[in-house]
Every structure is written in C-alpha cells, then in structure tokens.
Amino acid sequence: MFARCGCEPRTVDDGAIARAREDFVEALRAGDATAASAVYAADAKLLAPWADVFAGREAIAAFWRAGLDAGIAGIELEELTVAGGEGLAWEIGRYALHLEPADGRPVVDRGKYLVVHELQKDGSWRWAVEMFNPDAPPARSSGVEAPTGSLSAATPPPSDSGLPARL
To answer: Which of 23, 137, 140, 141 is at a distance of 20 to 30 A from 151, taking alpha carbons?
Structure first.
C-alpha cells in the first residue's frame, strides 16, 4: 500500500512545461548542450542510468555535451502525464534518443523518463530532477526500429568520451 499526500493533483501550466520540453529537444537537435541545460534549475539533479548523480546545471551541461560528442543526433519526448501543484509538477513520459556514432550505424535508445518541474521565482518552470532509464539492455540497431515496447539501445560510449557507461 502506498501512502498518499492527501492532496489532489492541481492543474499546472502545462503550456510552459511543454515549451521547456520543446526547448530541450530543439537544443539537443541543434547540438547545444548549454541551451539544453538551460531548462534545468540551477541546483537540478540528473539521474542517468548506471551513473552517479549529476548535480547542478554545469554538470548536466557537461553530461549532454559528452553525449553530443558521442553522437546524439536528437531526442523525442512523449509526455504521458503531467500533474502537480504548490510550485511542483511531475511529468512521466517515454523517450527515443537517436545517436549517430562515429562508426555511422544509427542507434535508437528507447525508455521512460520522470521529470520533476519546479516553479521559479521569475514564474518559469524548470526541471528540478530528471531520471530516465532504457526499456532494454544495450543492443546495436541495423537502422531498423525495434518493435514497439522494446528498445534498440546504444552501445556504451568510448571510455575517453567522458560519458557514464550509458546515456
């Protein structure tokens, strides 16, 4: 049995949250880790699979910069739900991370994500905590998408890339 807070989820500014998500997607597509990290709060935490916690916007920008250097070509984020209130909101969704590594073989890493959004003093919503995990263990793609519900994930980046064992 799960404990409940006794509060009903309230409507949040899902338009502002959607814009932040779109800004993040566009920044990665453009290869701009600094712009991608701008959607995070200054003291945000990123919990990536098989890695230590990345704390703060600078560390998060370094994570995404290393990912871009390793071949991230873009990301798709599909929101499944957004709810919250009292200055916090949570978003649950699915992602597809597209990589084009140096060997040229495309890779698609599919999985789930959770973002906790925090209302800032300036009225903007920023990502306070992000956590994501793949749907399946790493496997190379031949460029053909895996069936729905499964994942064709990235091979771990080179050890000198600065990335954790997985994105």
So the answer is: 23
pLDDT at 42: 97
Query: CA 98, CA 100: separation in Å to the nearest integer?
Result: 7
CA distance 38 to 142: 34
In which region does residue 152 sit, left (phi positive, over 0), alpha (psi from -120 to 50) or beta (all else)?
beta
Q: Considering only CA atoms, which of 166, 165, 163 is closest in space to residue 64? A: 163
DSSP, collapsed to helix, strand or coil, labels residue 105 as coil
- Residue 36 in tokens: 């991608």
Q: What is the CB neighbour count within 10 angstroms for residue 163? A: 23
Domain map (residue ranges) of the chain: 14-135+151-156
Q: Is 14 helix (H, G, I), strand (E, B) or coil?
A: helix
Tell me the pLDDT tens digit for each residue of 5-48: 444 454 578 899 999 999 999 999 999 999 999 999 999 999 99
CATH class for domain 14-135+151-156?
alpha beta
Structure pTM? Answer: 0.76
- Joined tokens for residue 103: 């060997």
